[in-house]
Amino acid sequence: MKFPSSLMDETCSAWGGVINDTRCLPSGLDGVCLLQALADNESSYGRKAVPRHEKAYDWGGRYLDKEQFELWGSWSAHSYGPFQVMWTNVVKYGPECNPWLATIDPSVTAEAATKMVLRLIVPRHHGDKTIEDWVKDIGWDYNAGSHSAPAPIDYMSKLLSNYQKRVEQRFHHGSPGAVPS
After folding, report:
1. Taking a C-beta distance cutoff of 8 angstroms, is the pair 48, 2 a contact?
2. Where does the pLDDT of residue 181 fall: very low under 50, low under 70, confident under 90, or very high at 90 and above?
3. Element (H or E) spanning 144, and its range?
4. Which residues contact 161 (CB under 8 A, 6 or more apart)?
5. What is the pLDDT of residues 79-111, one digit of tens each?
6. In 25-39, which positions are buried (b, 16+ CB within 10 angstroms) versus exposed (e)?
7. Which of 33, 91, 154, 164 has the largest CB neighbor count within 10 A?
8. Cα–Cα distance for residue pair 54/76, rounded to 1 Å
9. pTM (2 d.p.)
């Protein structure tokens, strides 16, 4: 599945605005740019948004969700959409849907990614950290599930680079979305 940049801009602006409205991120960390950077990392900003099989979530894997496996078979062992959200997290944090809808509608995984950031990831982090450290920590948890897993250094560095690129584009070149207060 390949999503047009205009649809990705609209999706990230809407759901990133939800993140900004909660004011749970530190001042200066922008939700729109964060979602854009996550989509950059996960699917080249929607250009490579195909379901990806994750063996650890399938039959015999350590993260198998038996209930979802009974409903969807191996489709429950895939990540979906431009934000590559695992099916178990789409079910937990996204709208009620099926794997097909999670594949064709970027707002499904944008909603799930937004709620994961707000409900699961951000509450784990606090304290006096730089924006760069916040972005890397969010990337660590988003990619690895938690800080108990080894740090995905390359993913974190790429996320920070994509975030900085998106901030530059948005606030210095007039890309979509409102400037955070």
Report:
1. yes
2. very low
3. helix 131-144
4. none
5. 999 999 999 999 999 999 999 999 999 999 999
6. bbeebbbbbbbbbbb
7. 33
8. 9
9. 0.92
